[in-house]
Amino acid sequence: MGTPRLLAGLDQIGRLDRVAHLTTHGQMPRYRPDELVDLADNIDLRGRGGAGFPFARKLRAVMRSARDRDGQTAVVVNGSEGEPSCLKDKALLLHAPHLVLDGALLAAAALNADDVVLGVTREDVEQSLREAIAERGPAGRRTRVVRLPERFVTGEGTSMVNGLNGGPTLPSGQKVRTSERGLNGVPTLLSNTETYAQLAVAARLGALDYRATGLPTEPGTTLLTVAGSTVVEVPTGTPLPYVLELCGTDPGQGVLVGGYHGRWLSPGSALAADISRGSLASFDAVLGAGAVLPLPEDTCPAGEVARVTRWMAKESAGQCGPCVRGLPSLADVLEDAVRGGGRNALDAIEARMRAVRRRGACSHPDGTAGFVASALASFPDEFRDHALGSGCGRRVRGALPLPEDENPERLVVDWTLCRGHGLCVDILPDVVRLDEDGFPAQASMPVPERLRPKALRAVRRCPALALRIQD
């Protein structure tokens, strides 16, 4: 929308190699350390991975720590993007990798850092970056790519540093500032993929031209992933409904912003919101990692939320009770409510959320509980109707994207008990198919995670008790 910056040149070529990159963006100017800090300050550059921390403050913190030690520093690019609803960093790393490398190397020069490490989780992203590094030839700084496990918690700062240091890719559970002790124990500048790309754009444009786009209080552009499938670059201040319209969608039943640790906007709020921190804050929401997920009218909100909560529970770091026990328990009671568990099930959801809030070793329990709380506030009638038995009559269509389960649970038929009543196909038409005699055509059928609540309902309602769920 408007003149592209981060995505410049991609209308002409699918991937910008080194030559195409320099043709599109030009050479990178040199900056003294104080000049780079001033630039980041002047454009109010914030981290684009979720927290929105001021980049200039990170630079200053690493510089202070280096002065207090032996001067060693490192730069880490967090390219993990474990959020299933986000593709923006993957888009940069696959199609414009040199822009990210420019920003990381610019920061490394300011910090006099020897090591620049890019932490990623996907094979295609790893290959793209290795090719980009090779296209640059020998460089004065060690630049390498490390592939880490593809999990939701991989992108947490201490989790990434632990993985890059050869340990488990899990949050440390301690309040450790990477600016004081990060890669190999040295002060480390750790930031998100888009943040470094924005720095490279700003360094070429200068503060004045960078601020010519977007809001005066939040200058520049930002990358969004809309509906889990479309990556767009928009100036800050762009109306959210305009973004949705250009992506071929609308607010539907509501819009989740900020991903699965984010918050829901009602259709009315979505129509009034702009793409900016200030606008979204007025609706108690944050843009986070740039995920914008409209919920279509033809899917069940309660079922969608329960499905995502179950996946989030499985993404636990496994290091504290609120994650290991609390999140699966929260997913259980949500599914119980969706299946018609009554008012007690709704009360149990509130109790489970209280049990995990502010007690986790990292932010995952809080973020998941916040997602559920926002959904309950945004879709109260949906959850009440499901809990009291009437439901909404809509299928769960998987509008909130999740990774495909490599080893899905299966719905298994006990042929010694099955009498061909056919209720299972009425409840699970996307899973069960009947043969010409009216019996299930298969004895074992994979159940996608999004359909698990309906599979459990089919098991419960089978008159012959001929069904079971099997891992």
Counted beta strands: 12
Quickly give the structural class: alpha/beta
Main sheet: which strands, in order across?
6-5-9-7-8
- Proportion in helices: 40-55%
Strand content: 5-15%
Write down the overall mean pLDDT. Answer: 91
**Strand/helix succession:** HHHEHHEHEHEHEEHEEHHEHHHHHEHEHE
Number of helices: 18
What oligomeric state do the depicted chains represent? Answer: single chain
Low-confidence stretches: none
Rg from Cα? 24 Å
Largest sheet: 5 strands, mixed
- Termini separation (Å)? 46 Å
Global outline: elongated
Secondary structure topology:
Layout: H1 18-25, H2 33-42, H3 55-68, E1 74-79, H4 88-95, H5 97-111, E2 115-120, H6 123-136, E3 142-147, H7 157-164, E4 188-192, H8 193-210, E5 221-226, E6 230-235, H9 240-246, E7 255-257, E8 263-265, H10 267-272, H11 277-281, E9 291-294, H12 301-314, H13 321-338, H14 343-356, H15 364-378, H16 380-387, E10 409-413, H17 423-427, E11 444-447, H18 452-461, E12 467-470
Parallel strand pairs: 1-2, 1-4, 2-3, 5-9
Antiparallel strand pairs: 5-6, 7-8, 7-9, 10-11, 10-12
